[in-house]
């Protein structure tokens, strides 16, 4: 599985394009494009690689991770897939934007495909397995690619940190439990690709993350 990371919007949100190099089937994970130049950047990449977008997947549905959801849905004819319990977050996108000082009206974003724990999303011959990691949001998920040894953790697990839990629906105890039981049980050499910041590994976070040791 080939993976490219983009850093978008004022929050430095990580948007990922993952694809199978043989079939050219691809998925966009956490579309954070806010401005036209960001939309053009991801579109140019998709066009240059001759990719066929089959999936649009969100690890969670906070504002900074869904800025570009409707753009990807409309341009590539795909449906938004995410954890069902995060759907209510989409009802308050404009209110959330105002709380962060963003004065702009956003069109309604709809969760089309609720994902379940253990579900496999195929991209070519490889798949992403849905792992529940509630706590940062009620319906937060991670996406694990066992063949490539990679897990997309959204805003649950970061290099040396964990997701904030002071936003609506967040719960710190739930998040720590989710990480310990559902992420730290992955192989130590699994690469962690988070929703913000740089990559790390499960083994590194297990050994030195101050929120987890």
Task: Describe, in plain words, how this protein is organized in 3D.
By secondary structure, the protein is an alpha/beta fold. The protein is built from six helices and 14 strands. Strands 1-2-3-4-5-6 form a six-stranded mixed sheet, with helices on one face. It has a six-stranded mixed sheet with strand order 7-8-9-10-13-14. A two-stranded antiparallel ribbon has the order 11-12. A hairpin with a 4-residue loop joins strand 9 and strand 10. The two termini are about 30 Å apart.
Task: Provide a compact summary of the structure.
24% of the residues lie in helices and 30% in strands. The protein has 213 residues and is α/β, with parallel strands linked by helices.
Low-confidence stretches: none
Cross-sheet strand order for the largest sheet: 1-2-3-4-5-6
The helicity comes to 10-25%
DSSP, total strands: 14
The major pleated sheet works out as: 6 strands, mixed
| Amino- and carboxy-terminal Cα gap | 31 Å
Q: What gross morphology would you assign?
A: globular
Tell me the structural class. alpha/beta
**Average of pLDDT:** 96
How much of the sequence is in beta strands?
A: 25-35%
Order of helices and strands: EEEHEHHEHEEEEEEEHEEH
Q: Mind telling me the C-alpha Rg?
A: 16 Å
Number of helices: 6
């Amino acid at each position: 599985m080939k993976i490219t990371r983009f850093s978008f919007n004022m929050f430095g949100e990580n948007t990922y394009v993952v694809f199978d190099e043989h079939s050219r089937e691809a998925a966009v994970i956490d579309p954070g494009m806010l401005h036209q130049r960001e939309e053009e950047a991801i579109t140019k990449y998709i066009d240059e690689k001759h990719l066929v977008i089959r999936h649009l997947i969100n690890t969670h549905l906070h504002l900074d991770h869904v800025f570009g959801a409707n753009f990807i849905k409309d341009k590539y004819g795909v449906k938004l897939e995410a954890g069902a319990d995060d759907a209510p977050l989409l009802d308050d996108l404009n209110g959330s934007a105002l709380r962060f000082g963003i004065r702009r009206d956003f069109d309604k974003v709809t969760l089309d495909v609720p994902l379940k724990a253990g579900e496999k999303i195929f991209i070519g011959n490889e798949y992403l397995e849905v792992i529940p990691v509630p706590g940062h949001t009620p319906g937060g998920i991670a996406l694990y690619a066992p063949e490539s040894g990679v897990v997309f953790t959204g805003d649950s697990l970061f290099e040396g940190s964990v997701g904030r839990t002071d936003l609506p629906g967040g719960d710190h105890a739930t998040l720590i439990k989710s990480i310990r039981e559902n992420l730290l049980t992955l192989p130590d050499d699994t690469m962690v690709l988070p929703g913000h910041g740089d990559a790390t590994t499960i083994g590194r976070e297990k050994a030195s993350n101050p929120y987890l040791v």
